[in-house]
């Protein structure tokens, strides 16, 4: 998609002083340490609002998968408790695009459009999962257009749950094999990112998807303002590896990367 989409608008609420952004946790039963870190983070974060910008779940085959006692239901309970303490927003990613209102509403989680313009402390931030900006991945963009169509989703969700779960397992295996063969994730089209920022009259783009956390200068806009691309970290915690990070926004300190936990230790400032 090389055209500029419509941007939803979300002004920060009056009581917000601290806002967190996370993405690409790929929660699944096979990685309990990642789930535990996420649940602990949501209990302890000082943020007034938490934005989850896609791929919170490794896979989502329909809201009816959140059966009592299921992993999906456990995640819903964590979100319900978190949203009782602060504002929580969810944006769909390429893995969990089938999350619907039947799951989000009981969890108390806000349904965040992709992309969304967040206004906070007189600054505007362009939020997106990021997959729409990876235009070089032509095969994926074609797949995305197909599975985001209401007709395809209705037909898929009408299939029995075990059948959908089997399809998801097959697609996950294909995705993992493809990533193993390629070794890298897709890159954001910088020119398209600049066009989005220009159309939004924003200077900072925040996204996930690429699993390449970092801050990138995108030049300047027509008014001479510097443009910045801020890429969120994925989360992956096993016995051998620990990778997790939160992007925190405050009026006093701007954007800062922190290590999630009760003390929220700073990693770096963007």
Report on this model:
The chain has helices spanning 32-44, 71-83, 101-107, 138-147, 150-157, 161-182, 190-200; strands at residues 8-11, 18-22, 49-53, 87-91, 110-112, 116-120, 123-128, 204-207, 214-220, 226-231, 236-237, 242-243, 246-250, 254-259, 265-269. Helix 1 (32-44) runs parallel beside helix 2 and helix 2 (71-83) crosses helix 3 (101-107). It has a single domain, classed as Metallo-dependent phosphatases (Purple Acid Phosphatase, chain A, domain 2, 4-Layer Sandwich). The protein is built from seven helices and 15 strands. The chain is globular and about 55 Å long. Strand 3, helix 2 (71-83) and strand 4 (87-91) form a beta-alpha-beta unit. 31% of the residues lie in helices and 26% in strands. The strands form three sheets. Strands 5-4-3-2-13-14-15 form a seven-stranded mixed sheet. A six-stranded mixed sheet has the order 1-6-7-8-10-9, covered by helices on one side. It has 270 residues and is of the alpha/beta class.
């Amino acid at each position: 998609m090389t055209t500029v989409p419509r941007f939803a608008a979300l002004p920060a609420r009056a009581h917000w002083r601290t806002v967190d952004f996370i993405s690409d946790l790929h929660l699944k039963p096979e990685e309990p340490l990642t789930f535990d870190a996420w649940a602990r983070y949501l209990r302890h974060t000082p943020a007034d609002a938490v934005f989850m910008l896609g791929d919170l779940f490794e896979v989502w085959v329909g809201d009816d998968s959140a059966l009592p006692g299921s992993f999906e239901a456990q995640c819903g309970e964590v979100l319900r408790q978190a949203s009782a303490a602060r504002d929580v927003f969810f944006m769909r990613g390429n893995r969990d695009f089938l999350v619907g209102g039947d799951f989000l509403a009981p969890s108390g989680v806000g349904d965040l459009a992709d992309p969304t313009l967040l206004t906070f402390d007189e600054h505007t931030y362009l939020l997106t999962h990021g997959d729409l900006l990876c235009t070089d991945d032509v095969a994926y963009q074609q797949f995305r257009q197909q599975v985001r169509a209401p007709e395809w989703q209705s037909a898929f969700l009408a299939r029995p749950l075990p059948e959908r779960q089997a399809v998801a397992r097959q697609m996950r295996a294909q995705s993992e094999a493809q990533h193993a063969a390629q070794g890298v994730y897709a890159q954001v089209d910088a020119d398209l990112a600049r066009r989005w920022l220009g159309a939004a009259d924003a200077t900072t783009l925040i996204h996930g998807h690429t699993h390449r956390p970092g801050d990138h200068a995108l030049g300047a806009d027509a008014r001479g303002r510097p443009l910045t691309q801020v890429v969120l970290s994925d989360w992956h915690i096993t016995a051998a590896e620990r990778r997790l990070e939160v992007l925190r926004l405050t009026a006093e300190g701007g954007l800062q990367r922190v290590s999630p936990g009760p003390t929220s230790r700073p990693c770096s400032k963007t």
